[in-house]
Each structure stands twice: as structure tokens, then as C-alpha cells.
Amino acid sequence: MEMEALHKVPLKEKIGYALGDGAANIAWRGVATFLFIYYTDVVGLNPVTVGVLFLVARFGDGISDVLMGILGDRTKSKYGKFRPWILWTAVPLAAILALLFTNPDFSDTGKVVYAYITYILFTLLYTANNIPYGALMAVMTGDDKERISIGSFRMVGAFAGGMLVQGALLFLVIYFGNVNPLIEVAELKPEKFEVAVTASKDVENVRIKTENGIAQFVWLDTKVDNGGDSPTHTKSFQMKKGETYSFLVSGEQNLNPESFSIIDQSKGYSHSMYLMSAFLALFMLITFYTTKERVQPPKGQLNNLKQDFRDLIANKPWLVLLAIGLLFNIYNSIKQGITIIYFTHYLNDQLLSASYLVGLMLASIGGAIATASLGKRLGKRNLFMIALLFSGLANALIVFCGPEDIIAIFGIGILSEFAAAMFPTLFFVMLGDAADYSEWKNGRRATGLIYSAGSFATKFGGGIAGAIIGLILGAFHYDGQDMSTIPAAIPGIKMLMSWVPCTITIIAAALMVRYPLTNTKMAGITEALNQRRDQ
Fold it and tell me: At 64, is the secondary structure helix, strand, or coil?
């Protein structure tokens, strides 16, 4: 194989590969950002139950990830080792994402069981798709610097997919979930109204608020026991066809029937995710058809699982990356999981979170693009440490922001996310370096097994983050369907949005000091491997 073929990857192929992570992030960021609030505020599960679910479902991930890495390394087909798995899992992954946001009419216990089954299936299918996808980058080229370029394209695709789901989903929820009941508004005095809502159909869970999100609601119906007389910016309740629901609404002027938003959240979320799932399958199929595998294991390498594991455990760069990947995914998943709750219940403007998340995604794209040049200049290890500390410390400043400090919240979030975007970009590139290190040191290559660390860290980190969110919100007695519990939960929500994730980045930066592959070391390894491959 010629040297040029090992190094250069066409632009079309980089874009095709990037779409695969766009698809993966429709799934992963969609779940990380919206599933917690969907389970608590729409399905009605207790936050501690959800946190335990997220953690328990991840216990088997270490085994499934390793098995998938082994299976990928041993796959033989005309399409290569890793590309076939992208083809085989594209539609099943899209289907399970749709089922994850489907709310069947089950009992409370049935809903918990359904959540466990669909969530565990989601993590397994994500493993079967994402480990081969991640490993594919390491065999598209043998040049570690070219991998940085592919990694930057990948992260741009990832953040674009995240922007699609995070920016559009809440607006799609409103579009698909619009109930259009009969609304009558009677002004009692300036900034105080009696509002009567008559249901045109049965809806398990709706949420009413004003379009501006400023006015506060108090129940006038004695038949409804959902927050009592506690004034809140929104009310959630079950609608029955023909029934009328009455509220005392205060805090805004000139309200009329068009001033109110009444959304069937269950229908809104499910139909929105059905649409997103279709995009996921399409993008994955494009990735399969546009990419190519070039780097093969050393000639004469025989399958030896025991030796592969020995090499893995002795691979110090991989061990450090496993710990770092786990920590930065806890950090990112806490931030993603709490954002919608923070905007909904602290800033009282859920739709504003869509603009915030889009702003973060744009910052992420900028961070991913900057990673390649900064990584070459500072070294991947040094850049990773700097990015961890900058992102975490900047994010901690949100604790000082009040509900009116919108510009400051956006500014802090964007600065923090610009640096945080470098974590996954560097991480997956460095896993490729760890695979090269193992081949250079041991004369053997197990790319899929090494990349299993990426999927394990992503999923188990998300599980730990979900448990942290659930336990902290549970400690503050948060109930997403009982608005009277929200004021007491605000301190916990602010903690999760600020200094709790910051603590994680400080620990991760301290661990990164142990990573041994400097730029100089990798240059020597790459040169030695290329000489071997050309022989």
C-alpha cells in the first residue's frame, strides 16, 4: 500500500464520516438532554427512580462494549470490519430511539418496566453502532495528524446533529403537541384574570403557561389536586374531554385566549422524536456508503483474545483515556441533563433553552474546528488539560446568575462550551493514538477493542451523571408534575448547572497529567509504523 493512500482522506469522505456522528448525536444528545425531563415531567416517574434507571442500565455496558470491540475486530466482510455494523444498526437504532420517547398507557409499574427495557435496548444498539463507527476513524488513515482533521470534521458533524435535535425539538413538541382547547379569559382587574379551559379530548398530561412565561397560575378547581393554591408559572394536569379547568392567572397584562400555550407533551415529544429518528437512519446510511477502510492489522496477525486483553491492560495511554473519558462524559451529561430543567423551572422560559442550546452548539463547532490547529501547537495532552480547566471554571460562574441575567448565562455557557467541544474531539483522536501505540509496542492491533473505551466512557458516564442529577433533585424533593415542589428544588438545580460539573473537570485535568503520549512521542511512533507498513 502506498504511503499517500495511508495518509490522505478525501473531503467527501470526511463529510460523510461526520454525518455519522451527526446521527449518533441526534440519539445521544436527544436522550441526554430531554429524556430525564421527559421521564419526570411527562411520564411522571420519580427523579430518584430515573437516576437509578440510568445507572443500573449502564452496569452491563462495560461487558457489551468490550464484546462489541472484539466482534468488530473479528468481523470479515467485503465492506471491511467496521462499516458493516453502521449499515446493520442504522434502522434499529432509529427505531429504538422512537420507542424510547413513546409513552404507552401502562400502570406506574408498567411504565418503569417499559423504561428499563427500551433504555437498555437503546444502550445496546448504540454500542453496536458507535464502537464500530469510532473505530472506523482509526482505519481510514494511518496518519495521526490526518486523524485530527477527521476528528474535527466528526465533531462538527456531532455538534450539528446536536444542534438539530436540541434547537428544534422543543418547537416541534409545541407543533405536534398543540391541543387547541376552548379557552375563556375574564379580566378581574389589571394583571389578574380568571381563565377557563374546556378540553376537546382526553389528554394524559398537558402543561399550560402563558406565551411569555411570566404570569403565575393558581387552581380555582377544587376537583384538581395538583399543586393546590401555590402560584407557579405553569401547571401540569390530566385533561378529560368535556371537563372545564379554571385558573386564577396574575402577573401579566392584556391576556387573551391566544396568550396561552397548552401542550400535550407526550404526543409532542413522541412525534418529534419519530421525525428525528428518520434523520438518524438517513445520515448513518450516507456514512456507510461514503467511507472506506484503509489500515489493516499487521500481516500474519492471528486472533488471540487473551493477548489482546493483555495488551489492553498494559496500554497506559488507554487506561488514562478510559478514566478521562468517563469523567468528561459525566461533566457533559450533567450539563445536558439539567439545562432544560434549569430553563423551565428557574428561568421560567423553556423555549429559551432551545436558543441557548443552539448557541452552545455553534460554540461547539467553533471549538471543534479550532482543535486541530491548537492540538498541533500545544499538543493534545496539554490542550486537553487547558480545555478541562477553562470549561469547568467558566461554567461554575453560572451559580452567581439570577433568572434575569440572561446575557451572562448565555455568555458563560458559550465560553464554557467552546472549550468543552475539544474534549470528545481530542478523546477519539487519542484513542487512535493508543491503538497505534499498542501496535508499535506489541506488533498487534485491536482497534475495536481499544475504541470500546469510547463507548463505555460515553454511556457509563451518562449513567453516573443521570444518577447524580436524580439523587440531588430527589434530595430537594423535586417533582416535575407538582409545581409547588419547584421553589425548594431551585438550589439543587443551580448546583447541578454550575459547581457540581466544575468539580469533575478539575479531577479529570489532574488525571490527564499521567497521559504519556506527547507530540514528540507520537511523531516517532507514526514514523516507525509507516515504515513497517511499507515493508
Answer: helix
